Amino acid sequence: MPDANDVLAVLTEQIETRFQTPIAELRRTVTATPRASPEATTIVRWHGMLTEAQQVLERAENALAEALARHVEAVPDGEFVELPEHVMQLADTVNSAHTVREGRAMTLRYFLDPQAIGNRMSTWRSLMARRGPALPTAPPPLPGVAQAPVRGAAR
Q1: Distance of alpha carbon 71 from alpha carbon 20, whole angstroms
Q2: If we measure between CA atoms, which residue out of 49, 27, 43 comes closest to residue 102?
Q3: Which of these, 30, 31, 112, lies nearest to 120 by C-alpha position?
Q4: pTM of the model
């Protein structure tokens, strides 16, 4: 299993393998012609959101590490001191950023998995490969019963 910090690299590699092109070139292509491939457009969009989430997580982790280092330096050896509120808030920020990054990674994995149940991309591909009309083109047969006259109806 890849390291959590390598999630972005692993998914980027899967995208590049799937589309046989580097991610930067794929991003330029999708930007120029977004409707050419709805699948590529969706995957590139989620990759961009994952990249952004990874950067936010890294900044939050760095801020927390710096705050913890300052706190440890200020505490005498062997003494137990509760963490200040701002350090706890930084820890919450890291947890939130991690959750966002994992959610986006999970969504991107879903779009990359052609066997995923309900995957729009695999459904789209199967619809495009279907032969013949999707709906019947002949009108439905009319019932064989003649309409009964209506009595007492106002005209």
Answers
A1: 48
A2: 49
A3: 112
A4: 0.71
